[in-house]
Design brief:
By secondary structure, this protein is of the alpha+beta class. About 45% of the residues lie in helices and about 10% in strands.
């Protein structure tokens, strides 16, 4: 509006609005401050609600690292965890993307009826009906090929995103966390460094990170009071700036990032079970970042960094030397945390003394469909709230829980189920060591029959030393001067541990051959029964793991569909990749189903798999020959099928040899004829197809004029 043409009323309204603008900004600032403080109080109350669970995390981790406190503390629990991790997650699972049932073409008879109805109803034109039928079939076959091509492309993309995100490294720690404390958390997000991205430990290094770091260092140099620290900041600033000038980096970095989040750093809203975390109104992810990294990432001014609470990494501690079972009362909820607050140890320093971390709270508010980010001590949102990717699930967290208890909020870990057996084993072994130590051979002697010098020589003698003595009574029998001390005999049954090991293996589902040396030789049948039992006992764990991996595969496919275009996909899957444009995540279930292949993440059971494939291979070979002959397939098509069968055999055998070395190349000679299938068996007395039946037997002829029969 032109102020020279405004009416007096309009000018007055504009003046009032301009005068009230600072007041409106101030009120908005106060509302944001109150909102941040309310959320921080809500988070602290929720952590107090789950304080006992975090205490249990600390206890379980002590047992997993072998801090039982006994003299002999054989770490059986840690060994069992290592064995199960190796079997449950030995490799990244195979992504299995199949076409949805809705994408399958209808029955041929239904297509023919549709074509006849469209060609003329009751009296259809045969030629028109045939043409209509061929058109419908071609359209459905093309749709089926497109869906199959999209499924193959999507499987390649998801597998590549997992590999680039170092899925195996984080997933093994994910499984280890679930086996140790009962629950494990993965966080999977798509990072684009030009847009707001969630807090992750696996940052994508790019030019923008270094630019933000330079800006933060420049601001610190302006406010640095000490000359020594100022010189250090100046040197770091020049070093980072020099790296920017000499190193060529991508301005834009994009990728799928997978993180392991410690269980104590994930806070699910009270009121729901952890197994139902997807229904929680909010979930908070706590992360600890270096102060300078947080300042650079969020663009915080120095006056805000002064108010931020500081943390430092907690020093590792052990419980060795107590000679007793672990005391449950000496564990605090804070012992599960990897960082400790500066406020808990007296005055809060700003930098120095290792307190150079800040606590970042990332709040995923499902009710508001927003992600909020706060730093402890700063009374405003350090990042503008934003909405996450529009996937079918709101939370990017994936929980793996082993040992759920009906009605309990937190699962029970296998460590806690077996910790008393671990204590009993350590107690027995420690008592056995004490018994052996106290049963050392001892000898007493008659000090009055030896001179003081000889008595001292006998007492100070070491093992197997020969000591000469002169008895006070000449000619005294030396055997009467010394006598061995009797001690309690060792009863092996008092220190038997096989029953304890059997119960431990039953809880953990581990067979004897995997956890200890074999005491009794077993036959091949017994070993096979043990192997089958091991797979059966660990089946529940594998089912839980595969369900979580299937959800992660579905989420990864949805994120790829939202964030990647055809050019990105072709860079991964090749020029022949099929990637429909404009499709949403709601359209995905109608085209394909995304999951993982069952059993593909664990250590393969090579013996059983090879036996099954050896049984199936002859049937496949005979079926290919029979079907090819009946369909009059070309030699090239038959060669393709034989080649695919050979490659599959190499893959199932686990051999890394190149099958191309054994596959013949195409030549200019005439193709070899395809052997016809063997003729079907003819029952006795039946006539085979194409054969002329033999003449019927005639009755015997009689001589002419005989008249007799």
């Amino acid at each position: 509006m032109d102020p020279t043409r405004a009416t007096p009323e309009q000018a007055l309204d504009a003046g009032i609005a301009a005068a009230n603008a600072p007041d409106d900004a101030g009120r908005a600032r106060e509302r944001e401050k109150a909102d941040v403080q309310a959320w921080m109080r809500r988070i602290e109350e929720a952590r107090k609600f789950d304080a006992e669970a975090r205490k249990q995390y600390a206890r379980d981790r002590r047992y997993a690292r072998g801090d039982s406190g006994f003299e002999v503390d054989t770490n059986l629990i840690g060994t069992f965890v290592d064995i199960l991790v190796a079997f449950l997650y030995a490799q990244d699972p195979d992504v299995d993307v199949t076409t949805a049932p809705s994408a399958e073409p209808p029955d041929m008879e239904a297509l023919r009826d549709t074509a006849e109805d469209a060609a003329g109803g009751a009296g259809p034109d045969p030629a028109a009906a045939r043409a209509r039928f061929e058109g419908l079939r071609a359209r459905y076959e093309q749709r089926q090929r497109d869906n199959k091509a999209f499924a193959d492309t999507l499987a390649i993309v998801v597998s590549r995103l997992w590999r680039d995100g170092r899925m195996k490294r984080h997933a093994k720690r994910w499984v280890r966390s679930a086996l140790t404390i009962g629950t494990g958390w993965l966080k999977a997000t798509w990072q684009t460094r030009t847009a707001p991205d969630p807090i992750t430990q696996q940052q994508i290094a790019d030019l923008q990170d270094n630019i933000r770091r330079v800006a933060a260092l420049r601001e610190q140099l302006q406010d640095e009071p000490g000359q020594a620290d100022c010189d250090a900041k100046q040197a770091e600033y020049q070093r980072v700036l020099a790296s920017l000038e000499t190193r060529v980096e991508r301005v834009v970095a994009r990728g799928f990032v997978i993180d392991l989040v410690q269980a104590e750093d994930v806070q699910v809203a009270p009121g729901v079970l952890l197994a139902e975390y997807l229904d929680a109104p909010w979930i908070v992810h706590r992360a600890f970042l270096r102060a300078e990294d947080a300042q650079a990432q969020f663009g915080l001014p120095q006056q805000d960094m002064v108010k931020a609470a500081r943390w430092r990494m907690r020093k590792p501690q052990t419980a060795h030397g107590k000679d007793t079972a672990m005391d449950a009362d000496d564990v605090r909820p804070e012992d599960a945390d990897g960082y400790e607050s500066a406020a808990s140890g007296g005055p809060q320093p700003q930098g120095g003394d290792g307190f150079d971390y800040v606590r970042v709270e990332e709040i995923w508010d499902r009710d508001a469909n927003a992600v909020l980010t706060a730093v402890e001590g700063i009374d405003r949102w350090v990042r503008r709230p934003y909405a996450p990717d529009a996937a079918t699930r709101f939370y990017p967290f994936f929980q793996l829980a082993i040992g759920e208890i009906d009605g309990e909020r937190h699962p029970q870990s296998l460590v806690w189920r077996s910790h008393k057996l671990q204590d009993e084993y350590s107690r027995v072994r420690s008592a056995f060591a004490e018994h052996r130590r106290r049963t050392r051979p001892k000898t007493v002697f008659n000090r009055g029959l030896l001179s003081p010098e000889d008595a001292r020589r006998v007492e100070s003698a070491v093992t197997q030393e020969m000591v000469g003595v002169d008895p006070i009574q000449p000619g005294a029998d030396i055997r009467t001067l010394f006598a061995p001390v009797t001690y309690a005999q060792l009863d092996p049954m008092l220190y038997e541990t096989q029953s304890i090991m059997g119960e431990m293996e039953r809880i953990w589902g581990i067979q004897e051959a995997l956890s200890q040396s074999i005491q009794t030789a077993k036959t091949a049948t017994e070993a096979q029964i043990q192997q089958t039992g091991f797979h059966a006992r660990t089946g529940a764990m594998r089912d839980v793991l595969e369900d979580a991996l299937g959800e992660l595969a579905q989420y990864t496919a949805e994120v790829a569909l939202l964030q990647m275009d055809a050019g990105d996909v072709r860079a991964i899957a090749g020029d022949d990749a099929f990637w429909p444009e404009g499709m949403t995540v709601d359209d995905l279930p109608a085209l394909v189903g995304v999951t993982i292949r069952a059993g593909s993440s664990g250590k393969p059971n090579t013996t059983a798999d090879r036996q099954a494939w050896a049984t199936l291979l002859p049937l496949l070979q005979q079926g290919i020959q029979t079907i090819g002959a009946l369909r009059q397939s070309t030699p090239d098509d038959m060669a393709d099928r034989a080649e695919a069968l050979l490659r599959e055999t190499f893959a199932r055998a686990g051999d890394h040899a190149d099958p191309d070395r054994f596959i013949p190349r195409e030549g200019a000679q005439q193709p070899l004829p395809v052997a016809p299938p063997p003729p079907p068996a003819v029952p006795p007395g039946a006539i085979a197809a194409g054969q002329v039946p033999p003449p019927a037997p005639q009755p015997p002829m009689t001589p002419a004029g005989n008249g007799s029969p």
